[in-house]
Amino acid sequence: MTPEHRHYITVSKRLKLIQHDELIKNEMLLEENRSVYWVSGWMDEDEAEILYDIACQEKVEHIFESGTCNGFSAMWLSLVGCPVTTFDPIDKPKVWDLVGGKPDNVTYIQSDFAALDCKDLKGKKLFFIDGDHGFEYADEDAFTALLNSSSGDVIVFHDLHYRAIKQVFKNTIEEHGVSHEQYKTRYGMGKVILK
Asked: Rounded distance, CA 154 to CA 121, Å?
């Protein structure tokens, strides 16, 4: 592949983020960069598309994410068009650096999700829980989402293949859910619509 070709990171079959030619000169460099940004267990393309679809179908106006990691899911969520605020206490390289910078509608906060304070914010909210996978941490993230939520808001959990995450998902359904869906994906996802 020559430097004259336009390079892409595919984010879905219907959506693409254009990579700048000057940032990626050949496929070898792209592969080197992917190894920097790749994280074991990160959301795959199918899961990212489900997350995007949930946000669009639910017509959310604000998105809050626990667990930025490499920023892949935040990039997807930015395509919804509403403000996305993503929290992670551990700073890692972000995929948005590979495609020319963080989207304008994404705010990255290097902090625990417990720092979130949006309970007075008007408009439908989506909370995406994908932080630490231990029960105590996932439960705290769900609690933070619930403290900041209103009736009809949405919580989406990633990594239901972890027993602790699945338990927090079930507890949220039983105690606060009006309806829910579970998605059989590579790592498992679940959506809860709140009472």
From this structure: 14
